Queue: 2 jobs
Job 1
Amino acid sequence: MFTPPFCLSVMKLLQIIDRLGKNNNGCIIWNRGKGKPSSTHVLYNDKIEIISRLIFKLKHRITHLPSWAFICHSCDTPLCCNPEHLFLGNAEINMRDMLSKERDNYTGPKFTKGIRRSNMSSTEKLIRALRLIEKDKLSYAK
């Protein structure tokens, strides 16, 4: 179920950001509607906006961003809305930024195989147990 986005005016937005404060990394974490599909969406001037795009547009006094434009985060924190952490990019710039910071799962020293992969659901214990079960099946079959 889609929750209506948080409705904002510029003054209200500035008040919210002031109250949020910065964390140790200097990030201002947008926590309005956190955990919902619309967590970073706000209603501004009768348009649904992503908070980082809205903050970037307001800071740079831009009225419209093309659809190909990405608002990238130098801090790599998607919920950060600190204008100092946001920069304009496109798909290529965003991918280069990700690769330069080794934030992908396929290159650099972070490349891992097997159970050390972050998207693996199997553990060493589970794999050992499955191998023992398979070994028992084979011995009963003989």
Job 2
Amino acid sequence: MSLQAIIGQPCVVQTLFVDGNNVPVNVDNPRCTVFYLSTGGDKIVVVDSQPMLAVGVDVGRYRYTFSVPGSLNTGDSLYAEMEATDEALAGRYFVEQQLTAVAQDTNTGTMRTQFVRGG
């Protein structure tokens, strides 16, 4: 399942870098590249190898905010590649997330709550 990115709006991607035992690790030089593929199959880079920011005190969690291009159509896919290194171990981490472009929500902001009696 891919995340949704609203066309023409800021979008935050985040990742948790983990080691081979799925333990979160602090990494060196976390970077993010975001791209999409044109109808002809060409790679169109939105942001190239930009530094990511640490998220609070969460070990190994980093984020990056970018603007979703207004030229995309609903249903188009974007890809966020997040990579980092661990200089102490000479290791490299790589994560890719797929995002789906969606149109701006035109809902008026109303919300309906429905309670269901269980039994």
